[in-house]
Structure formats: C-alpha cells, structure tokens
C-alpha cells in the first residue's frame, strides 16, 4: 500500500477520532467532570491519542523517503508529542481542518467557506476550551465560565481585544498567542480570497459586456457575408448568359 492510498483511507476515520476527542474534552472541561466519569473521559482521550500516534507511525513507515518525510512533517510529530500537555492535546484537531478543506474543494468559494465557517468556528471553540481548562482553577483568574472563554476567544481571534478578560497563566497566554496568530492568518486568507473573487466577478462582467456588444456585430457581418455571396452568384449568372 502506498502512503497516499493509506492517507485517503484513513482520512475520515481520523476525522471521526478527532470529533470523539473534541466531544470528550469539551464534556470534561465544561462539565467539570470528576471521579469515575473523569477517568472514563481521560481514557477516551488517551485512546484517541494512541490512534493518532499509530497514524503518524504508519505514515512514516509508508513514506518513500522516510528521512525526508520526517523532516518535512515535524509539525505532525509535534501534534502527537505535545498533547502530553493537557490543553495542547487540541492540536490533534488540525485533522478536522485538513479534511474539511479537501471535502469542500479547491475552488475560490470553497476556500472562503472552509476558512470562514470551518477554521474560524473551530479555532474559537478550541481556544475557548483550552483557555478555560487552564484558567478556571487559577488564582485571580478572569475567565471562569465557558461563556467567558467563548467571548474572550471571539475578541481575541478578531484582534479586537477589549481587555475585559485575559489569561493569567503561562499556558493560557500561550494559547492566546496561538489564537491571535491563527486569527490573523485566517482573516488574511479570507480577505485575499474575497478580493480574488471580486476581481474574477469584474472580469466575468467585462467579458459578458464585450460579448453583448460583439453579438450584433457578428450578426451584421454574417448578413453582409450572405449578401456578398448572393451578389457573387448574380454576377456569375450574368457572365454565363449569352450576349445578344
């Protein structure tokens, strides 16, 4: 089996695994589950981590040039390794973005829908979960509920930053930094895509206007060509008639 074939087969199962992890993590953080329930959710999250670790190992094994693939895909190794730190486990959800991008397609409108509806919503939700996880039990914390975390994530990713809520822990600030940079990247791509779409629409309108002007000219030229052909036939008939 080739690596590309494996990636095509594993794409949707990995997306399902990421969704299971997101549901378990969100339930644990928002619901503040303790006891046996927390242990069950933790087990589910570690099982999903194991699946992603196996996926990384399979990709490395099937790669044609393993050393080259390893160097060019260090980010995938980080996605597997860094989640030992609890909030950074959410890096596994990068799989959702890649699958969503492939599913909607490579068209201009597809990219806009992907990055706006997919990336922005997922980043806001994930950022809110991550910062709430580390902030809700910290001394002098400003972000204590999921509603607070969601509001903070929205103002952060849009680079508004009212300053009414902010993380006070080192990991919370790390999450904030990642969310800020992600927000700038997402908004930049969206702006560029919309600009490209507008340019495309103007070009299409210009071409349509040119065609509407050329169509009558083509009809007139066709009529003239028909008349000239008729005149040539008449001239030929006159030449063929015997002279008196």
Automatic annotation (TrEMBL):
Top-rank lineage group of the source organism: Bacteria
Annotated ranges, domain Potassium channel: 123-199
A Pfam family that the UniProt record links to this protein: Ion_trans_2
Residue intervals passing through the bilayer: 12-31, 43-62, 108-131, 143-162, 174-199
Classification via InterPro entries: K_chnl_dom, VG_K_chnl, Volt_channel_dom_sf
Protein name (database record): Voltage-gated potassium channel
Keywords: Ion channel, Ion transport, Membrane, Transmembrane, Transmembrane helix, Transport
Annotated organism of origin: Pseudarthrobacter sulfonivorans
């Amino acid at each position: 089996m080739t690596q590309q074939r494996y990636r095509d087969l594993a794409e949707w199962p990995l997306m399902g695994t990421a969704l299971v992890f997101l549901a378990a993590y969100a339930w644990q953080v928002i619901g503040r589950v303790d006891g046996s329930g927390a242990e069950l959710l933790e087990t589910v999250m570690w099982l999903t981590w194991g699946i992603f670790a196996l996926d990384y190992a399979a990709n490395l094994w099937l790669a044609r040039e393993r050393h080259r693939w390893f160097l060019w895909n260090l980010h995938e190794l980080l996605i597997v390794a860094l989640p030992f730190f609890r909030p950074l486990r959410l890096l596994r959800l990068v799989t959702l973005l890649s699958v969503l991008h492939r599913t909607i397609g490579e068209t201009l409108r597809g990219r806009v829908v992907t990055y706006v509806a997919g990336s922005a919503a997922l980043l806001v939700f994930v950022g809110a979960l991550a910062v709430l996880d580390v902030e809700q039990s910290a001394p002098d914390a400003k972000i204590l509920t999921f509603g607070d975390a969601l509001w903070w994530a929205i103002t952060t990713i849009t680079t508004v930053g009212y300053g009414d809520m902010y993380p006070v822990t080192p990991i919370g600030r790390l999450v904030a930094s990642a969310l800020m940079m992600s927000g700038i990247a997402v908004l930049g791509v969206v702006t560029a895509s919309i600009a490209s779409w507008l340019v495309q629409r103007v070009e299409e309108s210009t071409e349509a206007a040119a065609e509407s002007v050329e169509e009558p000219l083509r009809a007139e030229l066709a009529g003239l060509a028909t008349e000239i052909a008729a005149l040539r036939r008449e001239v030929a008939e006159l030449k063929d008639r015997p002279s008196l």
